[in-house]
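User: Okay, second chain of the day. Same drill as before: sequence in, structure tokens out.
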Amino acid sequence: MIVALIIACEIGFWVLLAAGLAFRYLLRMPRTGLALLLCEPVLEVVLLVVTAWDLKNGAEPDWTHGLAALYIGYTVGHGHRTVKWLDGHAAHRLDGRPLVRPPRHGLARARHETRVWLGTLIAAAVATALLQLAIWYVGDPARVTSLESWRSTAWRAAGIHGLIALTYWLWPKKAPADNAGTEPGAAGRERVGR
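Assistant: Same drill. Structure tokens below.
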């Protein structure tokens, strides 16, 4: 049941996102679009409530409950950034606004990757808190080993992502010689115009 609900929440996330962007840019109803986008956290609340209800009704804590906690953590840590990124692409495609891309080189790229990694840290912290609450809620140490293992999974993912982000600081990618001193994307526009 929990896996089906996670899938339904993921589908609901994308449906609400598409509807919100469609109302915002295609139908020129930005307030309605924003209202639809703001409904997305409701999906995570529903998932949280159903997961707690499932545990309260005596369900054996298993990997599905841990996955639900990680899914909610990911949405808290990266949901806003994902929506903002897709909104920027929709504004570019449907409204003609310039596309804002993350920096590609140097310390600016390292700072960007560090901000993304901070989202992963938030996701791991939220998942850990939810898992700990579930462990306390169940109250039986013999039944919660699967929930405990998901905590280490969350922090292992954050650690791997942190190592990847660190590589951008240790070995920053240098800008190509022909782009040196120009704004990001300017060289591409100059080449197209020739």
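Residues 63-95 form the longest helix (33 residues).

User: Thanks, on to the next one.
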